[in-house]
Design a protein that fits this description.
Blueprint: H1 3-15, E1 28-30, E2 33-37, E3 42-53, E4 56-69, E5 77-93, E6 98-109, E7 114-125, E8 130-140, E9 145-149, E10 157-159, H2 164-175
Antiparallel strand pairs: 1-3, 2-3, 3-4, 4-5, 5-6, 6-7, 7-8, 8-9, 8-10
């Protein structure tokens, strides 16, 4: 295989990594170093990695993307899972919310809409005013389930904004 065809193959592989939904147009990744293992369907990005997709942003030092053949187009590869490590921070925009997070290592499984934050985990739900600090945070968007684990001598910290109306109701009931 010529040098040109290898470069073209890598470029096509990177370009073809898009989500299955129509709203997911492009996955953009900037880094200082890129490697590909085509036979293993793995992409490696290292050094000041910035990944963006629409309004979503992920920053880290190392990003590994395992790919698989697209169910819609057998000639294209799509992300199977992501592993970000090294000063990981992210901002995710959902249909009605913005989530901000940090961790030592973050895994994302797009087909299952599942996130795992490991080590110095932080997650903030900006709409609800909830903040979670823990060693491990598991989120499943499909089921709506969240599981949080503290570490040894590190309790889970959970912060939730209370409704202003409930404060007023409490005060007015005391006055009666």
């Amino acid at each position: 295989m010529s040098k040109f065809s290898i470069i073209a193959l890598i470029a096509l592989l990177v370009i073809s990594i898009t989500g299955a939904n129509a709203e997911e147009n492009y996955l953009n990744i900037d880094s200082k170093h890129f490697e590909s293992q085509t036979q293993k369907n793995v992409l490696y990005f290292k050094g000041d990695v910035k990944m963006t997709k629409n309004k979503d942003v992920l920053l880290c030092q190392s990003l590994v993307i395992n790919t698989k053949t697209s169910s819609k187009d057998k000639t294209k590869q799509v992300p199977k899972d992501y592993k970000a490590s090294g000063d990981v921070s992210f901002t995710l925009h959902t249909t009605d919310n913005i989530l901000k997070g940090k961790g030592d290592v973050v895994y994302y499984y797009p087909d299952e809409k599942r996130y795992i934050i490991i080590g110095n985990g932080y997650l903030e739900d900006t709409k609800e005013g909830k903040k979670i600090i823990a060693e491990k945070i598991y989120i499943n968007e499909l089921t709506g389930q969240t599981k949080i684990d503290g570490g040894k001598n590190k309790p889970i910290k959970f912060r939730m904004r209370l409704n202003e109306s409930s404060k007023k109701d409490t005060n007015s009931s005391k006055e009666k």
